[in-house]
Amino acid sequence: MRVLFLTAVAVLLVGCGKAATSTQKVVTRTTYRVATTAPSLDVGVVGNLNGNGPGAKVQHGTLATLTAPLVLVQAGTSAAARLASVAAANPDTHYALVGGSAANLKLRNVVGLVIRDEPAAQLAGAVAGLVAEGEGVAAPRVGLIGPSNTSISFSFGLGVHAVTPHALVLHAWTGNAPAACKEAALTLLIRGAVAITAQSGRCADAAVSGAHEQNAVAIRISDFELLSVPATEIVRDAVGGVFHGGEDLVFGPSSGAIGIGPHDPRLSQASVLRARTLAGRLASGQPLAG
Fold first, then answer.
1. Average of pLDDT values for 200-216?
2. Does 24 have pLDDT greater than 50?
3. Topology (CATH) of 117-224+259-283
């Protein structure tokens, strides 16, 4: 199969359509365009991802066993840590790191599919605000746990106060150590937090475990980042004969990649319905408050 290599400089924020901002990166975009489009395409999947789409024949496996032209790899997994060496050794295979940046890899057969953290944190904050609102007290408290991150903290606070302006946000900067994250969750609950939020990964898993031991609502920011959206987008391009590499494609709220995914069953049905409404406002560019 003959492949043409096209290189250009571009700024991408998928699904946004707005002018470049400081949150976007100027990247060198390398597009692989095949000469003919096959009626179907084998797509390898490593991790808990959905790579389905018209014309895609999905195979789940490992980096060592998959031989498909396009392989999707979930960020944050052990496979993602090995992606650079595997991709360098297999230059004819195209890889997509779903949910993470590939900019530092500088490999023209690897694309990063990045979902913006800040809108996800804002939506997570709004859900925490809904929990706080239901307490019916003057100054309900919610907690945020994880590595220190100013933009995440600010966005989370915006979401909380868009729903419950009088709520207090308690912070516990723990790093990623699971034991520290769980201990922080229990400490914030003792301090009166009615919902615990953590970012992602093992830290979030531990914080959620601690909250659930006390029958408290727990929220993962990563649950608001819908990996199926960028995965489906990249598969659709590949089936159409276009492969991306050497860049990050950044997905904002209007792409549909920020929304209500898995959530704590302790959330009331009314809160879930309101959260979906807030997600729609975020996707359409409207403020959450109002």
1. 95
2. no
3. Rossmann fold (3.40.50)
Report the percent of the chain where pLDDT is more than 70: 86
C-alpha to C-alpha distance for 82 and 188, rounded to whole angstroms:
36
Which residues, other chains included, contact 22 with Cβ-Cβ below 8 Å and sequence gap of 6+? Answer: none
CA angle centred on 115, ends 146 and 254, rounded to 5°: 125
User: In the structure, what pLDDT confidence band is assigned to residue 21 with cuts at 50, 70 and 90?
Assistant: very low
218 vs 234: CA distance, rounded Å: 31
Strands (E), the chain: 3-11, 26-34, 41-46, 56-60, 70-74, 94-98, 110-115, 141-146, 168-173, 193-198, 217-220, 242-245, 247-251
What does CATH list as the number for 3-116+225-255? 3.40.50.2300
Full-model pTM = 0.84
- Token output for 207: 């914080």
CB contact at 8 A, 99 and 225 = yes
